Amino acid sequence: MAQLVNHYIDHTILKPTTLVKEIEQLCAEAMQYNFAAVCVPPNFVKKAKELTKDSEVKVATVIGFPFGYSAIEAKVAETVLAMVDGADELDIVINLIALKNNDWEYLANEINHLAPLIQSKRKAVKIIIESGILTDEEIIKCCTLYTPANVDFMKTSTGYAEVGATMHAVELMRKNLPENIQIKASGGIRDLAFAQALIAAGATRLGCSASVKIVNEQN
Fold this sequence. Notes:
Layout (H helix, E strand, L loop, with lengths): L8 E4 L7 H14 L3 E4 L4 H7 L6 E6 L8 H14 L3 E5 L2 H5 L3 H17 L3 E5 L7 H11 L6 E3 L11 H10 L5 E5 L5 H10 L3 E4 L2 H6 L3
Helix pairs in contact: 3-5, 6-7
Keywords: Cytoplasm, Lyase, Schiff base
Pfam family, one: DeoC
Protein name: Deoxyribose-phosphate aldolase
């Protein structure tokens, strides 16, 4: 399993002070280590797409990040612009205020606006549920809600909550999702052992900023 960890990784930088030179380094490392994708702020999608154009590295970006409470119309606009700029994968933060207020109808409306738009362009939909601040019951309800939308991935975390990816959350999601919906674990993945444990629990993608350190531990 260890030799395959690089192919699971979305090499990530999403801090609000990200510099162009950091994006250049991120993309160079992603190509060097054959990571699955780079995940960059929306401002840098076009740049990342140019830098990775001669590789198999996908370009991912975030929508409604990091808190998820943007209006549906705003998320639609962000999504359209990201795809115009060349994003291959869209990591969407759900409206956690709606979730915590038990407004599942709002969440259904949100995904029903976003998923078909993204799928019509044959791009990947990743739904960030911020599992670290959810109860098990809420995580299971998310699995039930997003399964009919046929999302590509359910993603644990933004990395901004106090609790990031956990094996428990990944295992719970895997147990309650159909096989065709993959799981992306992100938030707090800083060493090879944890990365491997999350893969064993059912994750098929890992969002990491410590990606190079993790893969170098294999040697």
